[in-house]
């Protein structure tokens, strides 16, 4: 008893299209958030310090070394 497989004809799913106006606000938000994070890890407690004290430096110290920013 041989069973022959009949190939089924299934339509390929259509690609999901996301309008650009839905992506732009999230892309801007991600870019601003990334710039803020890079600022705090790379530049805070230096010449452009916004906060007094060393707590930001101590909080982001290991991240500075991990990303290659000198801090000593």
Describe this structure in words.
The protein has 72 residues and is mostly helical. The chain has a domain of 46 residues. It is built from two helices and no strands. It is elongated, with a radius of gyration of 26 Å.
Number of strands: 0
**Major beta sheet, specifics?**
none
Number of helices: 2
Q: Structural class, from helix and strand content?
A: mainly alpha
Radius of gyration: 26 Å
Q: Determine the strand fraction and express it as a percent band.
A: under 5%
Low-confidence stretches: none
Question: Mean pLDDT across all residues, rounded?
Answer: 80
Roughly how many Å apart are the termini?
A: 79 Å
Order of helices and strands: HH
Q: What level of helicity do the residues show?
A: 40-55%
Identify the overall geometry.
elongated
Secondary structure layout plus pairing:
Blueprint: H1 20-42, H2 55-67
Tags for this model:
single chain, mainly alpha, elongated
Compact summary:
The protein is mainly α and 72 residues long. The chain has helices at residues 20-42, 55-67.
